[in-house]
């Protein structure tokens, strides 16, 4: 039972919010609409709350919660009496302007300053207004452009070799544009590697156009999602209109640019949908959730509170069966074979570095898979898997060892790149191409790559 002391304009507001949750008893010296309150099952005690008798009438000894909402220095006297008569209740009192120490020494559980709470609400609204303002700008840029488009469509570009975050973000932006009656296509360059990405595109029926299928003249609004660097631009465009991304330091410019330092672009787009009151379809929600999950390496890398909040919002819309299928795609026979070769051919140096040559293969995506897999072997903390794909030697490396920076190592050794824990490189086969004997080629490639890697890591090999 809740006892509310003080039924002025503020007390009324509070009672309105809580009246259907728990039984309430109101105390005030004067209460006008007693009959209405009684109809709503609210008990009313008319009297002076500084007097024991009044408080007892309200059965204050048995109150679970007492709210002291009157607004004068008399609150002190009320609070004293309440503490005495109802020691076990949870007591919330309203702060009174000009009396900062009003309740000092009393056992009040929570003092609420309504001015401060109001100010905080407004400050939160300012944050919210920024997002509202942003979306107004996005909409007006798209709609203004559309007027001059003569029926041409919008093109949403993902980066080269798009990942789930890029694909999901593009899907979300396309959905938003459709709501604004603007038709959009999603374009990508490179290829959709990894089984997870392919499974995602297939199961969620995402319609993606490869840049070979795209005639840029058919489009008049161009957006970039999940990249802001010209190196990632899959095709030449005259001008970008929109960039939405979470990578800093990009060199691309656009009329609308929203770059946030968060774990995934999918989070930014999820927040857009939320603000626009657009409930995502199951497919879109699943894509966005997987985008956040995979870009943050299962909510472990670069993840922010914002990403968690967006993922939580998506949670009730996602299709968990499809999500599970995307997370654990069937592994193709070829990738299985490359993994098997990587295991059999591994050479372990310095106790924990595995180097493995897998020969000639057709699918380069098998290399990172094999490098990931080898890393799971007992005692192995760093893996380098390499093979020949077409006219190149491709290398993929993984490490759990924080002392090594694989991005740096592969850059130094072969002009490759990547992160501390995962990196790759591609070297032209060059003169090795002339070697037709497979066994001889294996030896040459294996020795050359191994020697260079060990040299850069700083290990001298004996024997
Ligand atoms: Mn991303």
TrEMBL record:
It holds the Pfam family DHH. GO terms for biological process: potassium ion transport. InterPro entries: DDH_dom (IPR001667), DHH_sf (IPR038763), DHHA1_dom (IPR003156), NAD(P)-bd_dom_sf (IPR036291), Oligoribo/pAp-PDE_c-di-AMP_PDE (IPR051319), RCK_N (IPR003148). Residues 1-116 form the RCK N-terminal domain. One of its GO terms (molecular function) is nucleic acid binding. This is RCK N-terminal domain-containing protein.
């Amino acid at each position: 039972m809740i006892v509310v002391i003080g039924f002025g304009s503020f007390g009324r507001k509070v009672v309105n919010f809580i009246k259907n949750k728990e039984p309430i008893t109101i105390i005030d010296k004067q209460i006008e609409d007693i009959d209405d309150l009684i109809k709503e099952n609210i008990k009313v005690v008319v009297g002076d709350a500084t007097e024991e008798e009044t408080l007892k009438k309200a059965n204050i000894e048995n109150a679970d919660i007492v709210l002291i909402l009157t607004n004068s220095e008399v609150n002190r006297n009320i609070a004293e009496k309440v503490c005495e008569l109802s020691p076990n209740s949870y007591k919330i009192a309203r702060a009174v302007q000009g009396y900062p120490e009003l309740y000092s020494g009393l056992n009040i559980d929570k003092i609420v300053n309504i001015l401060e709470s109001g100010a905080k609400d407004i400050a939160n609204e300012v944050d919210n207004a920024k997002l509202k303002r942003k979306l107004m700008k996005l909409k007006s840029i798209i709609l203004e452009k559309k007027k001059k488009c003569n029926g041409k469509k919008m093109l949403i570009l993902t980066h080269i070799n798009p990942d789930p975050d890029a694909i999901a973000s593009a899907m979300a932006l396309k959905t938003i544009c459709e709501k604004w009656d603007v038709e959009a296509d999603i374009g990508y360059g490179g290829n959709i590697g990894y089984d997870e990405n392919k499974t995602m595109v297939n199961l969620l029926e995402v319609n993606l156009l490869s840049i070979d299928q795209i005639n840029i003249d058919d489009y008049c609004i161009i957006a970039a999602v999940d990249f802001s660097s010209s190196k990632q631009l899959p095709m030449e465009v005259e001008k970008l209109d929109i960039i939405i991304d979470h990578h800093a330091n990009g060199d691309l410019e656009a009329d609308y640019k929203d770059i946030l330092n968060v774990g995934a672009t999918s989070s930014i787009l999820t927040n857009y949908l939320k603000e626009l009151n657009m409930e995502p379809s199951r497919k879109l929600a699943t894509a966005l959730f997987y985008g956040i999950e995979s870009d943050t390496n299962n909510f472990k890398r670069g993840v922010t509170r914002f990403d968690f909040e967006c993922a939580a919002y998506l949670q009730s819309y996602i299709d968990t069966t499809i999500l599970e299928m995307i997370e654990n795609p069937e592994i193709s026979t070829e990738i299985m074979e490359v993994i098997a070769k990587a295991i059999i051919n591994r050479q372990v140096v310095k106790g924990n570095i595995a180097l493995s040559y897998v020969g000639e293969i057709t699918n380069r995506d098998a290399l990172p898979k094999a490098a990931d897999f080898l890393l799971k072997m007992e005692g192995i903390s760093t893996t380098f898997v390499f093979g020949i794909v077409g006219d190149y030697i491709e290398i993929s490396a993984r490490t759990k060892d924080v002392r090594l920076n694989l991005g740096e190592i592969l850059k130094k050794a072969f002009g490759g790149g990547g992160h501390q824990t995962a990196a790759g490189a591609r070297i032209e086969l060059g003169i090795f191409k002339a070697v037709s004997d497979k066994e001889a080629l294996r030896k040459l490639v294996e020795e050359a790559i191994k020697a260079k890697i060990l040299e850069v890591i700083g290990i001298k090999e004996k024997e």
